[in-house]
Amino acid sequence: MLKCSLDKIQNLFAEISKSAKLYLPVDGKDGGASYGEWSEGVEWSGALNTTKSPKDFFFPQTEDLMAFKTAGKSIEIIDTRSESEDFVVFGVRACDAKSFDILDRVFLSEPQDSFYAMKRKHGIIVTAACTKPSETCFCQTFGIDPASPAGDISTWKTADALYLQANTEKGTALLEKLGAILEECSDDAVNAQKEKTAAIMQKLPLKDLNTDDFGGGKTQELFNNPAWDELSQSCLGCGTCTFVCPTCQCYDIKDFNTGNGVIRYRCWDSCMYSEFTRMAHGNNRLTQKERFRQRFMHKLVYYPENNDGLFSCVGCGRCLAKCPISMNIVKVMKKIGGNKGE
Amino acid sequence: MQKITREQLIEKASELLANGTVSCVLGWGAGEFGYDVTPTVFKTAEEMKTGFVFSDFCGANFSKYLVAKTQKTEGKILVFLKPCDTYSFNQLLTEHRFDREKVYAVGIPCEGMADISKIKAICGEGISSITAEGDTFIVTTLYDDEPIAIEASAVLAERCVNCKSKKHVAYDELMGEDGDVLDSGRFDEVARLEAMTPDERFAFWQNELSRCIRCNACRDACPACTCEKCVFDNPKSGVENKSPANSFEEKLFHIIRAFHVAGRCTDCGECSRVCPQNIPLHLLNRKFIKDINEFYGDYQAGAEVGSRAPLVNYTTADLEPGEVFNREG
Ligand code: SF4
Ligand code: SF4
Ligand code: SF4
Ligand code: SF4
Ligand code: SF4
To answer: Is the same domain home to B316 and B207?
Structure first.
């Protein structure tokens, strides 16, 4: 275990940013935190979570894929990919760190998504343990321990120091570069913090929510449950839940007419939208109930069915906090699963 | 704190369900944490007893739901309307968006709704309970040994701080006392923006709108946005997009939306309430309202059914486009 005293944290950030661009959660003037690039004087937000998840670093909301330029009768095809440089995403919570495993299975399985793969290769993830989870947190439902976050490097912040531990080669290499700012220390302070957090986890209101009634093979049983009508009755179909979600992975590919060519790009899509997976015959999910059901069936049944039982929700609570009508995956699990979580 | 209670509302609804006036009730459904309320249709008094809530977190405006719900429901729907909701209700009727005969509207008084993010800014995350006592919220959290007392006035939602009216402009029946149209400070912030130089104002909006994730919550919650197919969802429109692809796109969406609702927006505040990125969308709409008031005389959308809004009306006294163009701000 290594540590850096908190009064030197700006030096630590400065040192990291010598070798790679450093991004970390920063406070906005309205109270919401978002990832921003570190430069001298930029403070690390104390917020539990950012409004938008860090998936943007690897799977941005919009991304150019290629371009076409026409001149007379010829078409030039332009590769818009650029070799990216190493970058560090600092302060990632355990739930969001787990979301990268979920995205990896989609984008890194064959045929690999080279845009995503490139960014994953160059991104170094430094996580930060949680000490004060919110009432909306239910990462433990999915087996995630917020006091022991994954990532290339894990960190724990106490009243006076930041403790760091490398988990991967990439992480070790980064810590080696930081040299003198860090000092060796025992695990005691971190262990004490882990114990304290474990006790808090037992007090969270959603602590007993479990996934027993969900998983692969449950399609027939859950698809026609009459409760979908009631659950979806007020859904606005806005897609906020999918856009703030760290594990939502759907995108649309579009062409933008530049006048003398085309830019082909992709952007996040949402199964809550009427245009989602529209085909020649129209949309195959005609009502909001069907779209709403897709979101939760995907997270709780279809994805685990195709991915060895791994659920595609990490319990970050963003959709609980941001849905305009306060309808969300927890309410769905309690109702559909008959699992009261009590 | 609300003066009308959950029990009074359940009693009223039970009576109207029992005597056959209505077949169902559009009300607020209880959530997990006391503040996460979901618009819900209740069919029986029993359902209401278990799932209905009324509290300082019942800000959602039900008027827009009537467009879809009246088409699906047999008989009349009972809807509870706060004063600001009644303006949206009238505006939707003016636009012939739902059948008035299928609704039984009960006006309820409102003391202003709380904004949970303002509460969290004071007490932090980890709320285990919130109770209202007089004009104070008592909040217990996982991290504080003692309950925290928060003045309700300090955590009022923005739209309620600047509430334009406590008067109900539409109802079949009123519970409690009706209030008055208020002299609110809702244009103060607009005036502050008008006083900026064009460059400063551009920078202000550029910065605010740069956070937009184009989730469409503002549009989808807006009672003035009831088009069955929004231009932004229609691939044939040429402007359809699912993301703010660049800063031009970002602004295009909001400028078009603001123009589409100009003269029809009642300033109900739903857009700003639902925005996950806390973008002050109400300021765009209030700028239009302020301009309309100044150019054509005071006009409040939804104040009455069937009024001809200045922008779709013509009088010989209308100002010339040049007068607008030459005006500062
Ligand atoms: S569940 Fe909520 S956030 Fe998601 S689309 Fe429906 S209303 Fe929007
Ligand atoms: S579904 Fe909700 S709680 Fe689960 S990962 Fe997505 S945003 Fe977080
Ligand atoms: S199908 Fe829906 S829930 Fe699943 S990843 Fe796509 S947008 Fe998210
Ligand atoms: S704007 Fe006025 S009537 Fe509407 S919720 Fe707020 S206080 Fe109540
Ligand atoms: S609700 Fe906010 S983030 Fe979503 S589209 Fe509207 S302005 Fe953008």
So the answer is: yes
